[in-house]
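Review this today:
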Amino acid sequence: MEEAGFSCEDIDAALAAARDHGWIDDRVFARLWVEDRMLHHPLSRRAIEEELRGRKVPRDVTSAAVRDHYPEERERDIARGLAEVRLARLGGLDEMTRRRRTIDFLIRRGFSSSVAADSVRRALEGSDHD
């Protein structure tokens, strides 16, 4: 940034002031990231942790954010909801193709193969009873 006219000392001072005022906070960022993902682009807990680590959020902060704001039991609910939407979207296909494509979709979202398969099974069972 020195080419922009700022010395390293100026940059360090500005960052320190921002941290002191709470404008830069890994914990807040991680919490907001988890909440945003759950609402707008649901992923597995593991996938969200990987995203945060990819953004250089410390492992302990990442783990705490996921633990506190994305409980394990919620992951299965999210996977089932995603499965229901995906199965409905693939409604014109035979059940085996719908099942396979939906499981693949959930795996791409970071869910384990067992969670994906169970979510699809439960979603199909639920649609049979609705």
Notes: The chain has two domains: 2-70, 73-129.
